């Protein structure tokens, strides 16, 4: 049984997909803790599902490295097999990334390497793209530059707004994330081979 720690900054829709999947006794992973860098709305899922949670506020530390050290200390307490960034909107310091790689995953609302960064959906629309996608990657020191575990195309409709398109991408992201966790647990994906 894989032990997952999920880090969030917002509503935690990908987190919820993992929590719902793990309600099935056959699903080979469980979320053991939920962390955040702020008082995120998604922490309500922790309470609803009875999962321990923690908050390591970025502003409480003198710099990114000190904050990353405190976050890593919290994460390590849970003896996780995988740490998943689920809408976690802070850049992690290299020491945090190196301590957990390759078992540190992130979801991204684009078909990487297309449209990296915090505004991927807006950027895809601004570029006039006819398709974008969703990706799950191993986190590295760059911004959305890590090895791609899986990605899937999502068409862009002519009348799509940023919100409508993002909702459609999120649906695919959730499915990909749950499948990746299942594939890692079953040995179909070897993260160490993706370095």
From TrEMBL:
Q: Which UniProt keywords apply?
A: Purine biosynthesis, Transferase
**What's this protein's family per the entry?**
Belongs to the GART family.
Q: Which InterPro entries does the record cross-reference, listed alphabetically?
A: Formyl_transf_N, Formyl_transf_N_sf, GART, GART_AS
SUPFAM superfamilies from the UniProt entry: Formyltransferase
**Matching NCBIfam families:** PurN
E.C. number:
2.1.2.2
**Protein name, as recorded:** Phosphoribosylglycinamide formyltransferase
| Top enzyme class | transferase
Report residues binding (6R)-10-formyltetrahydrofolate.
64, 89-92, 106
């Amino acid at each position: 049984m894989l032990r997952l720690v999920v880090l969030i900054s917002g509503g935690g829709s990908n987190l919820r997909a993992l929590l719902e999947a793990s309600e099935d006794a056959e699903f080979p992973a469980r979320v053991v803790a939920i962390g955040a860098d702020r008082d995120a709305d998604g922490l309500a899922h922790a309470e609803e599902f009875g999962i321990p949670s923690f908050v390591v506020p970025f502003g409480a530390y003198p710099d990114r490295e000190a904050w990353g050290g405190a976050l890593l200390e919290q994460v390590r307490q849970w003896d996780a097999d995988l740490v998943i960034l689920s809408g976690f909107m802070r850049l992690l310091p290299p020491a945090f990334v190196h301590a957990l790689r390759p078992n540190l995953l992130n979801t991204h609302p684009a078909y990487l390497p297309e449209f990296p960064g915090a505004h991927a959906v807006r950027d895809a629309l601004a570029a006039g793209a006819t398709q974008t996608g969703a990706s799950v990657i191993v986190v590295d020191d760059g911004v959305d530059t890590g090895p791609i575990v899986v990605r899937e195309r999502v068409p862009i409709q002519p009348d799509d707004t940023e919100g409508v398109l993002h909702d459609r991408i999120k649906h695919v992201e959730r499915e990909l994330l749950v499948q990746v966790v299942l594939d890692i647990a079953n040995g179909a994906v070897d993260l160490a081979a993706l370095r």
